[in-house]
């Protein structure tokens, strides 16, 4: 699977304001910003992303996905901190 394919899968099931992916085809690192994360704990955010991938996680099509998840407000603060 390519980064574009994985990005499309996540974006199709979760409205994202920002998403970046890096990886080697099996092991992925994602930064995802979505308003749907508002009010959700970290585990709930990750579960929401995993739900968009469905069986692809179970069939090893996506072997590993590490992620940082942010609400738009958190992302704005994150961006200010990096500036």
TrEMBL record:
<dbReference type="InterPro" id="IPR002634">
    <property type="entry name" value="BolA"/>
</dbReference>
<comment type="similarity">
    <text>Belongs to the BolA/IbaG family.</text>
</comment>
<dbReference type="Pfam" id="PF01722">
    <property type="entry name" value="BolA"/>
</dbReference>
<protein>
    <submittedName>
        <fullName>BolA family transcriptional regulator</fullName>
    </submittedName>
</protein>
<dbReference type="InterPro" id="IPR036065">
    <property type="entry name" value="BolA-like_sf"/>
</dbReference>
<dbReference type="InterPro" id="IPR050961">
    <property type="entry name" value="BolA/IbaG_stress_morph_reg"/>
</dbReference>
